[in-house]
């Protein structure tokens, strides 16, 4: 007597399912194709609006750059093109070495050494080499004052805004992000009213520069030590160049 064909099909399906599930449970050796290396470099595409780029003076530049953990010198970088403020820029970095750990918008010196990070994107550990890394940074203030404000006045290493804020108005000075510019530029110094804190065009005559570069007898806390560290030392120059260049916002 012939078996019902439906039964045969069902039995086949059942056997196949059991065999497949046993096999896949036991098998720990299957390579995940997502992590397969297909190339030996990344391509990166950064989109964003970069404001106040043209306020930079001196030998520093703002660049899209890639870094690894070991060095402050970029593996590869492209200086942002000086262009009109309200145009969205698309920057491309190709042949980025696969040991790159971050894609950054950073202030760099002429030797491609990182002076300050303004934006950082950590490359995911499972990033596929064959795919372009696409990053949208939105609108970023990359100007000279914007960089000083972000890296020094709000920085966690210098802590200016921790001692100088509306809540803790030491020397009646508010260095929080939204107030730093107006608290400094053309504002008379509390501890030496004969001077402005920042006198545009004249760093040597500005109280801010005196306090951070050599100190002042009327200021009961030495700020010079905040800028001796390698990380912050370049900002003595940058702040001087910013003031001498007209202290633009
Ligand atoms: C640990 C607290 C502390 C930190 C951090 C700090 N300051 Fe001060 N700052 C002071 C004190 C205290 C004074 C002097 C107040 C006094 O003598 O009455 C002062 C005074 C000043 C003055 C003089 C203001 C005036 O009008 O007389 C400036 C400028 C200044 N600080 C800038 C900075 C900057 C820039 C930073 C960060 C790089 C900073 N401070 C970090 C405590 C601090």
User: Terminal Cα separation, in Å?
Assistant: 95 Å
Strand order, sheet with most strands: 3-2-5-6
**Which geometry do the CA atoms define?**
elongated
Binned strand content:
15-25%
Secondary structural class: alpha+beta
**pLDDT < 50 runs, ≥5 residues:** 5-37
Q: Briefly, what CATH class of the largest domain?
A: Mainly Beta
Q: In this structure, how is the largest beta sheet organized?
A: 4 strands, antiparallel
Oligomer: single chain
SSE ordering: HEEEEEEEHHHHH
Count of discrete alpha- or pi-helical segments spanning 4 or more residues: 6
CATH fold name of the largest domain: Immunoglobulin-like
Supply database-style keywords.
249 residues, alpha+beta, Immunoglobulin-like, 4-stranded antiparallel sheet, 3-stranded mixed sheet, 7 strands, binds heme C
SSE layout and pairings?
Blueprint: H1 5-26, E1 41-51, E2 61-67, E3 76-79, E4 89-97, E5 102-108, E6 114-122, E7 132-141, H2 144-153, H3 160-163, H4 180-184, H5 207-213, H6 234-244
Parallel strand pairs: 1-7
Antiparallel strand pairs: 1-4, 2-3, 2-5, 5-6
Bound molecules: heme C.
Heme C is lined by residues 152, 158-160, 162-164, 170-171, 173, 189-191, 197, 207-208, 211-212, 219-221, 223, 226.
Folded structure, characterized:
There is one protein chain. The chain is of the alpha+beta class. It folds into two domains: 41-142, Sandwich (Immunoglobulin-like), CATH 2.60.40; 146-244. The protein is 24% helix and 23% strand. The protein contains six helices and seven strands, in the order αβββββββααααα. It has helices at residues 5-26, 144-153, 160-163, 180-184, 207-213, 234-244, and strands spanning 41-51, 61-67, 76-79, 89-97, 102-108, 114-122, 132-141.
């Amino acid at each position: 007597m012939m078996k019902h064909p439906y039964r045969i099909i069902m039995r086949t399906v059942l056997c196949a399912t059991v065999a497949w599930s046993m096999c896949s449970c036991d098998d720990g050796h299957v390579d995940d194709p997502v992590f397969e290396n297909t190339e030996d470099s990344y391509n990166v595409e950064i989109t964003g609006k970069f404001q106040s780029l043209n306020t930079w003076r001196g030998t520093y530049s703002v660049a899209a750059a890639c870094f690894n953990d070991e060095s402050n010198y970029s593996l590869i970088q492209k200086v942002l093109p000086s262009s009109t403020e309200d145009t969205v820029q698309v920057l491309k970095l190709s042949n980025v070495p696969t040991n790159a750990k971050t894609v950054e918008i950073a202030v760099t010196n002429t030797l491609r050494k990182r002076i300050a990070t303004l934006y950082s994107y950590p490359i995911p550990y499972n990033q596929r080499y064959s795919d372009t890394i696409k990053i949208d940074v939105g609108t970023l203030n990359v100007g000279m004052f914007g960089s000083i404000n972000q890296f020094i006045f709000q920085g966690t290493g210098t802590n200016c805004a921790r001692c100088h804020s509306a809540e803790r108005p030491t020397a009646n000075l508010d260095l929080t992000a939204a107030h730093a510019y107006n608290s400094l530029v053309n504002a008379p110094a509390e501890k030496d009213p004969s001077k402005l804190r920042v006198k545009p065009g004249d760093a040597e005559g500005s109280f801010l520069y005196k306090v951070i570069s050599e100190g002042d007898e009327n200021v009961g806390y030495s700020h010079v030590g905040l800028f001796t560290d390698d990380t912050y030392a370049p900002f003595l120059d940058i702040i001087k160049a910013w003031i001498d260049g007209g202290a633009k916002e």
